[in-house]
Amino acid sequence: MAGAIIENMSTKKLVIVGVALLLCQAFTFMVGGLIAPSPTTAVPYLATKCVDTIKHRQESKWFMPWGPNQCHKIRSFDEATAKMIEANNIVFAVHIPLPNKEMSSWFQFMLVILQFDIAFKMYNQIEDGAMVTIDVGLAYRDDTISEWTEMAHSFEQRKLSCNFTTAKTYENEGRYYECDLMPFMEVGSVSHKYYLLNMRLPVNERKKVNVGIGEIKDIRLVSIHQNGGFTQVWFAMKTFLTPSILIIMIWYWRRITLMSRPPVLLEKVILALGISMTFINIPVEWFSISFNWTWMLLFGDIRQGIFYSMLLSFWIIFCGEHLMETQFFEALVLGRGELKMCVSCVPAIQIFPERPTNKSQDQTERNRFSVYWKQVGPIVFGSFCLFIFDMCERGVQLTNPFYSIWASDVGTELAMAFIIVAGICACLYFLFLCFMVFQVFRNISGKRTSLPAMSKARRLHYEGLIFRFKFLMLVTLICAAMTVIFFIISQVNEGHWHWGEHTVQVNSAFFTGIYGMWNLYVFAIMFLYAPSHKRYGDEQSSGQCITGDAGANSGEDIQLTTTITHVDGPTEIYKMTGKEAQE
Amino acid sequence: MFLHCETLYYAFILLNIYNFFFFWHAYLIYSSSVAAGAQSGIEECKYQFAWDRWNCPERALQLSTHSSLRSANRETAFVHAISSAGVMYTLTRNCSLGDFDNCGCDDSRNGQRGGHGWLWGGCSDNVGFGEAISKQFVDALETGQDARAAMNLHNNEAGRKAVKGTMQRTCKCHGVSGSCTTQTCWLQLPEFREVGNYLKEKYHRALKVDLLRGAGNSAASRGAIAETFSSISRKELVHLEDSPDYCLENRTLGLPGTEGRECLKKGKNLSKWEKRSCKRLCGECGLAVQERKAEMVSSCNCKFHWCCAVRCEQCRKTVTKYFCVKKGGQRGRNESASSRRKNLRLRKKH
Fold first, then answer.
1. A207 vs A578, more confident
2. A55-78 per-residue burial string, b: 16 or more CB within 10 A, e: under 16
3. Rounded to whole angstroms, how far apart are CA atoms B104 and B122?
4. Are the C-beta atoms of B38 and B75 separated by less than 8 Å?
5. Which of A340, A409, A465, B106 is the most buried (most CB within 10 A)?
6. Which residue ranges does UniProt annotate as crossing the membrane (chain A) (predicted)?
7. B120, A211: Cβ pair inside 8 Å?
8. ipTM of predicted assembly, 2 dp
9. The CATH number of A40-226 is which of 1.10.3470, 2.60.120, 2.60.40, 1.10.150?
10. pLDDT tens-digit map of B137-150
């Protein structure tokens, strides 16, 4: 890993690369903020109360709330009481979308939230722990005249968690309870134009079904879907980012394979990071436009999960490797001038202070992933928990779109358990990470003082090491801070800012900007931490990589295209230190 | 050339007819919602002022400018505000029922009309639509250009702002595994009672504008009116005159007076305002409070379903009610009148 491009690059070029990346970053933010609409739209619906007049039907009939063939509807339940209509004959019908509009596969997903308007009555209050049983059917059609086709049908139970904020008196009869939102339905692809929901609240006093749920006045639904414009911008971004990451990844791996030594763990991890980023980037969503792939939502979650765990693992391993190298540095300072010690650092520089001469063992130790089991374990376990949780929620929704793990008590406890375990894993991970970063910094600051006393090549190597580490730390911190800041802004903010005549969609900017940022992050890591071709021991320019004397290094191009016989950094160091020792 | 002019003329007439029918068509679509909205406004007004001296009598609720006795007091301000709020509320609500074809999608927020805008960036909130139509219908009743008209328009606007101001922002998280990385928020209509309570507060803090003196119809005074009203926050209610004495019956103003009104005295969960209602309605108006016991038939031990079916037993119980009567004399007549009213009210409750 020593002799990465970042160390051997002149400050000028580093600045150029940095500015180019920043421009790309600003561009991704602007794409989201100025071109794309807001990411999602929420459409409120009020269920129409239809009356099912036929007593015993053979086949299922669908009730339309409006338009031709609309059902026989009533405006309020007082009307129903007057006409002696029973609760079992009332069907709540909601047509998605509203008149004159149609759904599109560009909407990607649709989730529906349920809310009851329940009036307070002194003698008909909501009982504790009341459950609503909903007999719900979902149907679709693709033109306005054909028959409805059933998509799903289910009996769903939802827990009513309502409270009445004002005093429970006669005077306040008729006021509504404040009820929590209930997740109702989630479909992972919107491939049909029209959807129809028919809900019934069957009453059965013997079985205690829908008894003690108060006086329901209305059923409100809110459907949330991704905006078509946002989907298009998002797809365009993915389509553009995939080749950029792919190309830099291939280039990076080619550099590694060109070296005379086998790749070390850190290099492999960086490659894995690139692969997982590409995995997210590949715009397979294009297929969801023409195919009815309901598992796309779940697949997207899995892809994101893989990337996040890869990124977290990368940070740990990066810190770990640098920790070891600084520890080696310690050993080297202690045993300065001993050639034997320096021989042992070929090709990789890793020696534990306790066992400074055991070369083969150290090398395998360094290249083994299992050294990090303690740190990577929580990541894997936490992601696994979240995966199980996601499978329980979105996996089951593939077959029953009305399923929700939060609807039942056992499910809620299970889900909470998974999430809490994942949270503990995350805390554990961050403790490990912070501890490691702290250790590296302690080592660095401790050894700073002894740097001037070292020979030039050795000093350069360790200055490079420190620089490399600090650079990544800085960039990572900035990226993480940006993510957190934008996340907070998008949570607090109304979603869009007005800037004169322009409307800036903050939420969209957050999504495209943060997505672009992590892409650029991975891109920059693969580019800057790829092994350099440059010779190390060039006496004239050797100081420049750190001090950044930009004037005199026109000949110091990073030789991206050279295919000369490769001499990589550590070997150079070995030569240099060897030479010194001979002297 | 002549022919050409003629064609233009006919085209112009046709356009006018088209406009007329367009408006008429729009009127037919929305009129039932507008009427229902105004009605709900009135009901809310009655509820809010049940224990005030002025109790929102039907006569006060004529929004039109044609009524010869146009008062411009606090109560008128409230009536205008609650009516336009009711219209806006009902229109917005009926939007989500699917009653109208173009809710929220006919504006130019995304620069595109109709279908493409919906696909690209969704529609704007229904409440914007409700506001626009309410403005079109309710404000159209105000034809004058004097201070009263300006006041009514201002209060109409305040009513609409009240609906917007009481809307609740609700959010739902739906990111990876249901986390909050993605969340969608929307504005939700409150109960109409919330709007009523909000406007009642505004009613108590209504601002008086002194514009009636020297009110001409000259351009200068019109400018002064516009200037005055534009300096007042659009959320506040505005009135020009002081309220008359609602204690006394006033036939010219169409005020019934507080005689014979019911008031509240004892009760566990009464608010301060309600507890003082007998003092306010009777005592301070120079009337006496009369206690009457009435036997009431009410339903009890009911078994409810969430809708419609209620099976109850009939229970009888005695309730004490309080009414305002004139001090001494004429008791008999009042009693019969008020008991009739009371019976009516009791019947209404069930």
1. A207
2. eeeeeeebbbbbeeeebebbeebe
3. 9
4. no
5. A465
6. 233-253, 265-286, 306-324, 376-396, 416-444, 465-489, 509-530
7. no
8. 0.79
9. 2.60.120
10. 888 877 777 788 88
